[in-house]
Amino acid sequence: MGPRLRRLLGATVGRFPVRVRSGIAQGARWTLFPWTSYWRGAHEPQVQAAVCGLGGGDIRGWSCWDLGAHFGIYSVGLAMRAGPGGQVAALEPNPESFARLELHRRMNALGWLRTYRAAAAARTGTAELLTYGDLGSMTTHLPYPDETVGAGAAPLPVRTLSLDDEVDAGRLRAPQFVKIDVEGSAHGALLGMARSLAASRPVLLVALHDDSEALGVLSVLDPLGYDRAPVAPQRAGAPMAGADFWFTPRPRA
After folding, report:
1. What values do phi and psi take at 35, rounded to 5?
2. 212 and 184 in contact (C-beta within 8 Å)?
3. How many domains does the chain have?
4. Residue 69: CA count within 13 A, CB half-sphere
5. pLDDT digits (tens, 9 = 90+) for 72-82
6. Radius of gyration of the chain, Cα coordinates, nearest whole angstrom
């Protein structure tokens, strides 16, 4: 399906209200199209099950960050579970995805879910989001370190945000859980929250897309004393790239 048809459907039948059938956001109000796997509860079942088990299944009052929130299935689910005494921050730089994320926040009256049209990064500022002409794609991303940005990249200026800046300014609480799925830019996102990681030592769930991203993540989290384990079982010696990993802090000595 081409991007134009996807946008047309998303703007018409796509806004028909439905309920999420199962998973992290079960019972939430949602929209029909696109990404019907979200409201059906079929998207990333192992990851959803793992997040549902946070805190032994009870995360009331938690502060959670969702970086690369897309339409907000995890953001909404975490906010529903954290409740009004909690706080959830959802970052999504893609304007089309952000619009649907914000719509879902409003549909579910989640005033403690804070949405940011921004990319988590090492520094607050601006960057270019490479779209390759299709904002409906899930692979829009900040430039990779070795990426050649050609004419077809269709870059879009976006805001970047260091989450440490938000915590220092009192606009966000330090997190107890962070989900990161930012299409190769997790290293920069972690650098921008390094002080918060050292102080609050949250549990993290990170989607690793390539070897460079994996190495960058380890360069930040290993010195902070984090252990890692794949969400889904892996064969011995399997690369970290292409998998989702839990990072849990070791107890302080």
Report:
1. 60, 60
2. yes
3. 1
4. 38
5. 999 999 999 99
6. 17
